[in-house]
Amino acid sequence: MYKTSLNTQINRIYQVLSLGLVVSVLGCEPTDTALSQEGLAGTEAGESGTISSQGGEEAGMNAAGELASGQEMAGDTAGVTAETCQPNIEQWPQMQAILSESCGLCHGTEPQFGAPFSLMDYESFTPEHALRVAQSLSEGSMPPAGQEPLNAEERMSLYSWLSCGELGETPTPVPAGGFSSSRPLLTAPDELPSNVDFFELRADGFTVPTRRDDRYECFTISAPINEERFIRRVETIVDDARILHHVVVIPDAGGREPGTHSKCDDDNPFDMVYAWAPGQGALQFAEGGIRLSPGQALTLQIHYNNSAKYENTSDRSGVRIYHGPTEGPEVAVLTLGPVGFEVPPRSREEVTGYCELPQGTSLIASFPHMHEKGARFQQSVTRDWINQEPSADIVWEDVITLDGWDFESQYVYATEMDFAQGDLIKTSCVYENDSDEPLRFGEKTADEMCFNFAYISPPIPVSLCNQSTLPAQRYIPGECAPSESSTWAPPPVEVRFEAGESRALSASSALPTGQYWIDEAIAIVPSDVVEQYRFDLVESGARGRGIAVWTDEQNVILDLNSEMRLVAAGLSFTERLDLSLEGTVSLRESTDLNDEFAGSFDLDISCGNLDNGQLWVNPDAPQVDTNGQMQVKGGWVEFPIGFGPIDLLIRVHLNRMN
Ligand code: HEC
After folding, report:
1. How confident is the model over 413-453, as pLDDT tens digits?
2. Nearest alpha carbon, ligand 1 atom 18
3. Residue 576 and residue 525: Cα distance in Å, rounded?
4. Which residue from 57, 62, 125, 136 has its CB within 8 A of the most atoms of ligand 1, so it is best to mutate?
5. Please, are residues 171 and 78 in contact by the beta-carbon 8 Å criterion?
6. What is the predicted pLDDT for the residue at 538?
7. Contact 84 CB / ligand 1 (< 6 Å)
8. Secondary element (H or E) of residue 161
9. Closest to 490 in 3D by CA, of 248, 655, 608, 310
10. How far, in Å, from the CA of 195 to the mean position of ligand 1?
11. So what's the pLDDT on residue 506?
12. Where does 509-592 have alpha helices with state H?
C-alpha cells in the first residue's frame, strides 16, 4: 500500500515534469512528441503565411483598403488604432529632412538601388502610402540592414507624422466581463518613458474564416534590435475591432519560423510578456523592464472571434513594443499556480497550489489566467511561513481575487506589493465542470490552467513556482517512525542535487544504536538524465526534515518529510515527497566479484513505501566526546529510489541526537 503511494506521488511529479518539458520543447523546436504533433497538425495549409516586410507588402496594401470599415467600433474599446490618414502638410519640411538624410540615398527623386519609389515629395504620401511607410518603420525593415539606422527620435517623429499623431495615445481602462476584482486594472501614463525606441508586431491583413467563430492565430518575429534592451512599455494596436478578441505576447517562437504565422489553438502559454483584452490599457514599467535579446523570438497570439460572420475581414492589429537601454530594475514574469490537477465530471471544485518564495521580490502587476470553465480566482500570501507556529491560524493577505470569471475578459491588474523570502503564496481556482469528462490541467483551451502570470522585480531563479500541498513547517512522523519522534524536532535540511554516475560508498558497517537527525542530504541524478531533461541542478533541490533510528537488532527506521523542487528546461515543479521505512539490515555475504551489491546491507522491509533493496552505510570516524570517550557520532547512508524512469541515488548524513 505504501509502496503504491510513493510510486503514485513519484509518477505524478514525473508526469508534470515531462508535461512541462514537452511544453518547453514545443516552444523551441518541432519534436516528434504526440503533443507537438497535435499542435503542429493544427496548421491548415493555405491559412499560414509570412509576416516579413516584403511578404507583407501585398497584404498591407489590401489591408489598407479594409481599414476604414473596421474603425467604427474601434473607438472606445481600442488602444492605439491603425488608421490610415493624410499626414499633415505643415510638418513636411522637418519630415523631408529626415527622409532625405536616412532614405534619400535609395528613395531619392530618382529612386535607385532597387528602391521602388521616391520619398521626396509630399504628394506621394497618400493615406495608403503613408501607412505602408509607417509599417516599414515599425517593423524595423527600413532602412535596410547595413544602412545607418534611424535614431529613436527620428523614427518616432516620422512614424507619428505618418500616422497623424497616433503614437502614444492610451485608452481609459474599462473593465468588462461582469465580475468584480479586488484590484484595479493596470493603467499606464500617457507619457512615454524617456529614451525609448519601438517596433511593432502585427497581423498582416489577416482574414478570419467565416466558417469558424474562434480563431487563434500566432504571428512570430525575431526582435529587430541589435543589443540587449529592456521592454519598457507595450500597447495594443486595434485594427479590425469587429473580430479582435484578445492578445497575448509570448517570449518564444512556439515552433514557428520567425516571420511566419499559423494557427495556434493548442498551445496556451506557460510564460508571457503582455496580455490585452478590450478595455485594457498599456503596460508600462515605471522603472526598468523585461529583458529582450537581439533576435529573440516573440509570438503575438491573437484570439479572433468572428461569430457575426463578417466577410472579407482583414486585420492588422498587434502590439507596439517600446524598448530602452538595460537600465533600472529588471522585470520578469513569474508563473504561479497549481499544475497537474484534475476536476471530476459534473462538479464544482477548487484547486490550489503554493509557492514558498525562494527569494524576496516585488510584485508589480498580475495577469490571472484560467480557461473556459473557471468560476473564481484567488491569490493570497502568508508571511514568513517557515517560522509560523504550526498550530496558529494562517493569516492570508489578498493579492488578487476575481469573484467570477469571463474567459473573454482577461486583464492585467495593478497589484503592487512586496514579498520576502519564505513568504508563501497560495493560488486557488474554482472550476465548474459541467461536462461528463474530467477537466484536466493542460495547455489546450479545452483543458484548464490556474495561473497568475506575475510581473515581478527583481527576477527570481525560477519561472514557474508551485507546490501542490501546503509545505510542512515542521517534521511530522510518517507511518514507520515512532510517534514520539514528533518531539525530536529535526532541523530542516536543504537537499542538493548533483550529477553523478556511481555510488560513493562501497562497504557498509553498522551504526551505533540510537536516534538520529538527518542533517545533510544529496540526490544524485545520472549525468545523461541531467542532459536529456535539461535539469537545472543548481535550482533543483528539496527541503526536508527527517529522523533515523538504529537498534541493536539491526532494525533501521528512516523517516523523511520533503518537498522536492525540480527545475528542468526553465520550469519548476515542487511536490511533497515523504519517505518512511522500517526494516532489518543484514550484511551481504558475497564472494561473487560481479555482485554489484557486494558490501551493502540487504534491507528487508517490514513497513513503509520503499521496496526491499540495498543500503550502503558508512560510519563517520570516531570523535572524542565530552567524557573523553571515542564515539561514532553519525554516518552516511545511501540507497537508490526510482523516480519515474529515472534512478536516483539518495545519500543522507545521520547525526546522533545524544
Ligand atoms: C540602401 C537603400 C535604401 C535605403 C537607405 C532605404 N530603402 Fe526603402 N527600399 C529599398 C529597396 C531596395 C526596397 C525594395 C525592396 C524591399 O522591399 O526590400 C525598398 C522598399 C521600401 C518600402 C516598400 C516595401 C515595404 O516594406 O512596403 C518602403 C515603405 C521603404 N522602402 C521605406 C524606406 C524608408 C522610410 C527609408 C528611410 C528611413 C528607406 N526605405 C531607406 C532600399 C532602401
Report:
1. 999 999 998 899 999 999 999 999 999 988 777 789 999 99
2. 54
3. 19
4. 136
5. yes
6. 84
7. no
8. helix 152-162
9. 655
10. 25
11. 76
12. 527-532
From first CA to last CA, the distance across the chain in angstroms is: 34
The letter for the amino acid at 411 is: Y
More confident residue, 69 or 630: 630
What's the average model confidence in pLDDT over 358-382?
93
Domains of the chain: 2-25+474-656 (no CATH), 31-328 (2.60.120.310), 331-465 (2.60.120.230)
Q: So what's the pLDDT on residue 53?
A: 30
Q: Is 60 exceeded by the pLDDT of residue 71? A: no
Cell 534512478 -> residue: 647
Three-state SS for 499? strand
Plot region of 255 (φ>0 → left; ψ -120 to 50 → alpha; else → beta): left
What is the pTM assigned to this prediction? 0.66
Ligand 1 centroid from CA 141, angstroms: 8
CA 513 to ligand 1 center in whole angstroms: 83
What's the CA-to-centroid distance between 105 and ligand 1, angstroms? 10
Q: What is the DSSP letter of 109?
A: S
- pLDDT digits 0-9 by tens, 21-50: 444 333 333 223 222 222 222 333 334 455
Atom of ligand 1 at shortest distance to CA of 139? 26
What is the whole-number distance in angstroms between the Cα of residue 604 and the centre of ligand 1?
78
- The verdict on the CB of residue 107 being under 6 Å from ligand 1 is yes
Residue type at 562?
A: S
Q: How far apart are CA 46 and CA 169, in angstroms?
A: 36
- Looking at mean pLDDT, say which of 134-143, 428-437, 475-484, 594-603 comes out highest: 428-437
| 575 DSSP β-pair partners | 564
| Residue 585, pLDDT score | 94
The predicted-structure confidence for 386-406, as pLDDT tens digits, reads as follows 788 777 889 999 999 999 998
Shortest CA distance to 253 belongs to which of 300, 285, 308? 300
Q: Is the CB of 143 under 6 A from ligand 1?
A: yes
CA distances to 59, 215, 228, 456 from 260, rounded to whole Å, are: 13, 16, 23, 31
